Amino acid sequence: MSMEDTEDKEEQAAENAAAGESVAQESAAPGEDSPKEGEKDPLEEAKDKIAALQQQVDELSKANTELKEQVLRRAADFDNYRKRMIQEKQDAFDYANTNLLKDLLDSLDNFDRTVQAAATATDPKAIADGVTMINKSMVSMLENKYNLTAYGQPGDAFDPEVHEAIGSSNDPVAEPVLKAVYLKGYKLKDRVIRHAKVMVSMPDGSVSPAAEQPDSPEESAPAPEAGEGNA
């Protein structure tokens, strides 16, 4: 290899090195890859988006926590309400007859006084009158305040819906009637709470049913014979 060739190669290498430095300087020159004026740095923009998303996550997490607390509070309130309703229902069942029993206490007190008086009484009628008075007072209280009424009297029409027949006999009656009442029945308003136990008189056939009997004297009077009106 000649000296000229060697020198040419050294000059070419020097030119290539100079060209590489020039390119490196141009690429490293300030402001070439930086955002233009008015534009936001992509890195800063990404950071802002991350911060916004994090804020949303924090807000949703807070809202979720509040909702959970509300659900727990409402569940606790409902459980307390359910327990209170159960207790009130039980109390209503246990003490449903409180007012009635309070009203019966007066009658019990009167019976106690009557029993004490009977121990030294010399007039049985006075004791009987006292018991009768207590009975009337208690019956009146039950009828007027609690709509409890007794029913069943001899001669009443027999009604299997409200009467319990414990025996019967054939008698001269047109329809079944009560012959005797062994135990009075009771109604609370319109509902039977105890059927009357009765003896029933059944028709023996000697008396015509009421439906077959004449409704008025005019219908029972015989029709005038022909010619009587002209006599």
Structure in words:
The chain has 231 residues and is α+β, with helices and mostly antiparallel strands. Helix content is 56%, strand content 16%. The chain is built from five helices and six strands, in the order ααααββββββα. It has helices at residues 3-28, 42-94, 98-120, 124-146, 217-220, and strands at 148-151, 163-171, 177-183, 185-188, 191-194, 196-203. A three-stranded antiparallel β-sheet has the order 1-4-5. Strand 4 and strand 5 form a beta hairpin. Helix 3 runs antiparallel to helix 4. The chain is elongated. The model is unreliable at 27-32 and 227-231 (pLDDT under 50).
| Estimated share of beta-strand residues | 15-25%
Query: What class, by secondary structure content?
Result: alpha+beta
Low confidence ranges: 27-32, 227-231
Q: What value does the Rg take, in angstroms?
A: 56 Å
Give the number of DSSP strands. Answer: 6
Secondary-structure element string? HHHHEEEEEEH
Q: Helical region count?
A: 5
Overall helicity: 55-70%
What is the mean predicted local confidence, pLDDT?
82
Shape: elongated
In which order are the strands of the major sheet placed?
A: 1-4-5
Q: Give a quick account of the main beta sheet: strands, pairing sense, barrel closure.
A: 3 strands, antiparallel
Note the gap between the termini: 190 Å
